[in-house]
């Protein structure tokens, strides 16, 4: 009953005990049993061929031999003593005769074997096993739980559980990040039907986050989404993903110390289609040959009142050149375009999974609800911070030369963590984003004001780092800042370029990446590199 259990014993011979093991309860009970109780067939044979009252535990002198032993040519020398039971309490079967007549005796079968090996109604008339209905029973695949205390968030708990049946046809996933109450927490639940070629999943999720800007602006963002998705493998290399979600988003905005509030909400449908082709040759960490690409189309149709309206098309193509002996060259091109009243934004700079992340001083215009929830990353673009530039259109080119360094670095005199398959990369990233003005937002005189730092028009200029200042009366400019003014850096231009080196390895079972990148401006490379520690595979 239940699911199968598989146990793994590592280095079993290293677990051998030097001292003699003490007999357990089963061994002690076995030593007290007679030979005929251990092997009931011996009692049956001696009762068959021996005279009445014969001790079943000793040989019978002069008893008639079984037919198999009495046949000519089958004479057997009688042992001087009973060798059935040895000194170490093990059974010696050399003097036993296993006759098929015993197995055919119904009285012996009823007494010792029972009828459990031939259940009634177990086979059909043609001798095949009777089909039985599959009984659905869920067991947990894995469970993860943790509790955390933070001086920023306070106390919160993490939980993730995955259930599935024995055949993997059904799957239930639940996860939560509880903070204070359900209104301020993150949680999701999903059910997947994976029995057929077409995989289905229904899901519901809730997300909430709050933060405060340096100027005292308080934000809380909430989103609730429920939907259905399907995944259909066309063949071994191609796949089609379809999804339809109903999303409700809300933004609560206030300013510390002022009786000012601006709350917005919207509900919309979000259909999405993704076509994927993957014909790559897998390496130890990243692909080393072949190509893969994906095309996605998503949007929000105007069907519910004043809901969001946009449509977005995105493409991603990757090509890998295998140069042999662990050397490879990877090329990636990606881009997207979004149209509509509430077009999506794509921000550039940084890389996915960045642990020690840094953000630029650029502001995403929170007065537009779509900007808050629908802004997507266009990465990697190393040498720059997150959100260096953004727009509703982007194009990105990444190149990497990957080469092997060490198969493994193991702990020795230096106490380090073991590193496996250490490889190096040399990269160049270049991209541009346009289509939206990049503003500087600030609060002055009880209202939000803004000034444009970079226009939405594509000017094909390589970015240049410019230092701006903001005075107490709202004056924004460049050059030498007046006394008491705040200063910040921003990029002037639509094209970002970065270059550098990196390492790839497996650390604590995770694909660990380290990169150091230098930004390239109009007047040459910058002098302050940015270090990236991240978890991830490929680009």
Feature tags:
single chain; 8% helix; mainly beta; elongated; 7 helices; three-stranded mixed sheet; 539 residues; 25 strands
Kindly describe this structure.
With 539 residues, the chain is mostly beta strands. The chain is 8% helix and 48% strand. The protein has seven helices and 25 strands. It has helices spanning 25-32, 35-38, 40-49, 67-70, 100-104, 106-113, 369-374, and strands at 139-150, 154-164, 170-179, 181-193, 199-212, 217-233, 238-255, 264-281, 289-300, 310-324, 327-339, 346-348, 376-378, 389-391, 393-409, 419-434, 438-444, 447-454, 464-470, 476-478, 486-492, 495-507, 510-521, 524-525, 530-535. The chain has a 17-stranded antiparallel β-sheet that branches. A three-stranded mixed β-sheet has the order 13-12-14, with no helix packed on it. It has a three-stranded antiparallel β-sheet with strand order 20-19-21, with no helix packed on it. Strand 3 (170-179) and strand 4 form a beta hairpin. The radius of gyration is 37 Å and the shape is elongated. It starts with 24 loop residues before the first helix and ends with a strand. 17% of the residues are buried. Residues 56-86 have low confidence and may be disordered.
End-to-end C-alpha gap: 45 Å
Question: Which percent range describes the beta-strand content?
Answer: over 45%
Parts with pLDDT < 50 across at least 5 consecutive residues: 56-86
The radius of gyration over CA amounts to 37 Å
**What is the arithmetic mean of pLDDT?**
81
SS summary, helix count:
7
Q: Can you summarize the main beta sheet?
A: 17 strands, antiparallel
The percent range for helix content is: under 10%
């Amino acid at each position: 009953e239940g699911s199968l259990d598989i146990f793994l014993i590592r280095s079993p011979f290293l677990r051998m005990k030097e001292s003699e093991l003490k007999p357990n309860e089963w061994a002690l009970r076995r030593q007290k049993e007679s030979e005929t109780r251990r092997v009931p067939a011996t009692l049956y044979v001696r009762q068959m061929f021996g005279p009445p009252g014969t001790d079943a535990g000793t040989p019978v002198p002069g008893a008639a031999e079984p037919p198999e032993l009495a046949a000519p040519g089958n004479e057997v020398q009688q042992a001087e003593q009973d060798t059935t039971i040895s000194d170490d309490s093990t059974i010696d079967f050399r003097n036993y005769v296993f006759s098929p007549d015993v197995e055919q005796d119904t009285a012996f079968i009823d007494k010792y074997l029972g009828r459990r090996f031939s259940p009634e109604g177990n086979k059909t008339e043609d001798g095949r096993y009777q089909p039985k209905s599959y009984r659905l029973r869920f067991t947990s695949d894995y469970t993860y739980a943790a509790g955390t205390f933070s001086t920023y968030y306070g106390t919160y708990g993490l939980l993730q559980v995955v259930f599935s049946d024995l055949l993997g046809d059904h799957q239930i996933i639940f996860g939560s990040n509880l903070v204070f109450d359900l209104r301020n927490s993150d949680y999701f639940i999903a059910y997947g039907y994976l029995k057929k070629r077409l995989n289905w999943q229904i899901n519901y999720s809730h997300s909430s986050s709050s933060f405060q800007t340096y100027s005292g602006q308080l934000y809380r963002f909430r989103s609730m989404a429920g939907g259905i998705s399907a995944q259909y493998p066309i063949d071994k290399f191609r796949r089609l993903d379809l999804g339809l979600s109903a999303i409700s988003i809300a933004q609560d905005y206030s300013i510390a110390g002022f009786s000012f509030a601006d709350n917005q909400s919207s509900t919309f449908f979000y259909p999405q289609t993704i076509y994927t082709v993957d014909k790559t040759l897998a390496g130890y960490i990243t692909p080393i040959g072949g190509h893969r690409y994906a095309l996605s189309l998503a949007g929000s149709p105007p069907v519910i009142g004043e809901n969001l309206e946009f449509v977005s098309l995105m493409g991603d193509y990757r090509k890998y050149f295998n140069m042999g002996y662990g050397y490879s060259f990877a090329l990636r091109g990606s881009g997207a375009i979004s149209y509509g009243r509430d077009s999506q934004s794509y921000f550039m700079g940084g890389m996915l999974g960045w642990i020690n992340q840094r953000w630029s001083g650029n502001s995403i215009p929170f007065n537009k609800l779509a900007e808050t929830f629908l802004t997507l990353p266009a990465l990697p673009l190393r040498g720059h911070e997150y959100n260096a530039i953004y727009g509703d259109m982007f194009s990105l080119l990444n190149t990497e030369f990957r080469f092997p360094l060490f198969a493994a670095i193991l702990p020795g005199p230096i106490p380090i963590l073991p590193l496996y398959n250490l490889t190096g990369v040399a990269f160049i990233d270049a991209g541009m984003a346009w289509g939206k003005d990049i503003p500087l937002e600030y609060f002055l005189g009880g209202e939000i004001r803004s000034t444009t730092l970079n226009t939405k028009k594509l000017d094909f200029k390589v970015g240049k780092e410019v230092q701006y200042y903001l005075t107490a009366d709202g004056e924004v400019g460049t050059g030498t800042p007046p006394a008491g003014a705040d200063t910040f850096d921003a990029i002037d231009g639509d094209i970002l370029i970065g270059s550098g080196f990196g390492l790839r390895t497996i650390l604590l079972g995770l694909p660990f990446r380290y990169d150091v990148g230098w930004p390239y401006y109009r007047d040459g490379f910058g002098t302050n590199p940015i270090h990236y520690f991240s978890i991830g595979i490929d680009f």
